[in-house]
Amino acid sequence: MLLLATLLCARVDAEETRGSAGAKPIQSSFTVAAAAPLGPTSSPPGTPALSSSSSPAGSMSSVEETRFAGTFIYIGGQSERSVVKTAVDRATEGMFGKVIAREELMKRSEPRPSYTIRFEEDGKVSVETPGFPSETAPVDGTEVVVRNKFGDVITQSQEFVDGALVQTGKNDDGSGSTEFRLGSDGNTLQVTRVSRSPRLPRPVVFSLTYFRKPAPR
User: Fold this and answer.
1) Whose CA is closest to 4, among 156, 171, 212, 189?
2) Would you put residue 78 in left (φ > 0), alpha (ψ -120 to 50) or beta?
């Protein structure tokens, strides 16, 4: 989530020199916890455990299930990919090690080809993308500990807020969110991803457009 991507953690660990010959290298370390963290892992001491309980009755309506369930394909094309790059460039402008930071953030901010939203019988919601671990959590805001595609351990939760499915993720280095909001046609899905970190001068914020894949006949 989030989720995903998120939703999504970006980490830069690189050494850069001071610019003068023979100068001692400076270590630059930077992490952003984005939303939509992916896949379960064992819980470190002192962190929330993966939840196996169902969501409380009434936390998720059949209307929400009907509206959001399905597979949505990315239709934003190159124009929205350019928006992502602009958002990353703006968020990193003026920071130390911004070239490496931008490379890592772009890798993790790449628009996913699709999202499949699935409502499970135990009251959880799964958000799936080919090539990514499934993002599964209760829809009542209960926190679970997950590990994303890039190996980062994140505390994740998800719930419906003002008619949108919202995934949030956080760790010691930052936080983020992924909002899934359906358009009035019931088929267009707007995915807004936000990543924040104390090491970023500004948050990374961008939106991507998806459209519902017709059900097989």
Assistant:
1) 156
2) alpha
User: Which domain, by its residues, includes 81?
Assistant: 8-14+28-53+61-211
Instruction: Tell me whether residue 19 is in a domain.
Output: no
* Residue 172 is assigned to a structural domain of this protein: yes
pTM: 0.73
Assign residue 160 the CATH number of its domain: 2.40.128.20
- The token duo for 88 is 């990353």
β-partners of residue 71 are: 116
- Residue-wise pLDDT for 74-133, tens only, equals 999 999 999 999 999 999 999 999 999 999 999 989 999 999 999 998 889 999 999 998
- Enter the tokens of residue 165: 């499915």
Which residue, 204, 179, 211, 209, is CA-closest to 111? 209
